[in-house]
């Protein structure tokens, strides 16, 4: 899948500072130099934005994953601990207008069907997984205001108690609980190292630009 180009080549940012109202105040040469520097128009390239957006996506994904696994280890089998919406990293991203979600062809809870773009990206990661190619995160432009980060969700040993094989990794108690809460559950029988789904993180460009 090709990553679309940004619709603009350069973005400009300028900070306007209020001048001193006291004409008799002594001149602070250092302050004057800093003000002149701050008034300069700084060019921000499309590649700068894409690079920082990719880094932002990777950092959020890594922290959400870390908190998620830490929560699982402390949960003693509580299924509710699997919810992303309970994680501090998820809530912090949400406050910044960043949307963190997971998609899968084998979901635990039935939701909307994947759209054409999601299916295309999923197919690309599945191809890489089947041919044992390195799966790396990618970034695309959704529209003029939003970028989307993609990364694979790989089955880890810690996830086997809920997503592994029934009767082997998933005990009877957990299986009954899953069947009760998720009657259309498809998120099981994954082997360690398998592709379970994708991270999908939508990042407003304004969040990237203000940090450049």
What's a concise summary of this model?
This protein is 39% helix and 17% strand.
Q: Please state roughly what percent of the residues sit in beta strands, choosing from under 5%, 5-15%, 15-25%, 25-35%, 35-45% or over 45%.
A: 15-25%
What letter string, H or E per element, gives the SSE order?
Answer: EHEHHEHEEHHEH
Number of helices: 7
Integer average pLDDT: 82
Q: Which spans of ≥5 residues are poorly predicted at pLDDT below 50? A: 1-23
What gross morphology would you assign? elongated
List how many beta strands DSSP finds: 6
Description:
By secondary structure, the protein is of the alpha+beta class. The protein has one domain (46-209). It contains 7 helices and 6 strands, in the order βαβααβαββααβα. The protein has helices spanning 29-39, 46-75, 88-95, 116-130, 160-163, 172-181, 205-209; strands at residues 10-13, 42-45, 99-103, 138-141, 146-154, 195-204. It has a 4-stranded antiparallel β-sheet with strand order 3-6-5-4, sandwiched between helices. A hairpin with a 4-residue loop joins strand 4 (138-141) and strand 5. Helix 2 runs antiparallel to helix 3 (88-95). The longest helix has 30 residues, at 46-75. The radius of gyration is 23 Å and the shape is elongated.
Task: Write out key terms for the chains shown.
7 helices; 212 residues; disordered N terminus; alpha+beta; single chain
């Amino acid at each position: 899948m090709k990553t679309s180009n940004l619709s603009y080549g350069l973005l400009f940012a300028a900070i306007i500072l209020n001048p001193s109202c006291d004409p008799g105040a002594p001149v602070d040469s250092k302050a004057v130099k800093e003000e002149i520097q701050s008034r300069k128009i700084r060019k921000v390239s499309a590649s700068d934005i894409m690079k920082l957006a990719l880094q932002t996506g990777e950092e959020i994904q890594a922290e959400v994953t870390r908190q998620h696994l830490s929560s699982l280890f402390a949960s003693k089998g509580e299924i509710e601990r699997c919810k992303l919406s309970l994680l501090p990293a998820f809530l912090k991203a949400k406050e910044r207008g960043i949307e963190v979600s997971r998609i899968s062809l084998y979901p635990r809870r039935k939701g909307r069907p994947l759209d054409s773009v999601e299916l295309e990206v999923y197919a690309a990661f599945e191809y890489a997984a089947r041919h044992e190619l390195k799966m790396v995160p990618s970034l695309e432009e959704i529209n003029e205001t939003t970028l989307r980060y993609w990364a694979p969700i790989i089955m880890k040993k810690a996830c086997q108690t809920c997503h592994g094989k029934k009767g082997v990794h998933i005990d009877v108690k957990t299986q009954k609980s899953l069947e009760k809460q998720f009657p259309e559950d498809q998120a099981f029988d994954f082997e360690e190292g398998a592709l379970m789904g994708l991270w999908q993180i939508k990042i407003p460009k304004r969040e990237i630009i203000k940090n450049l």
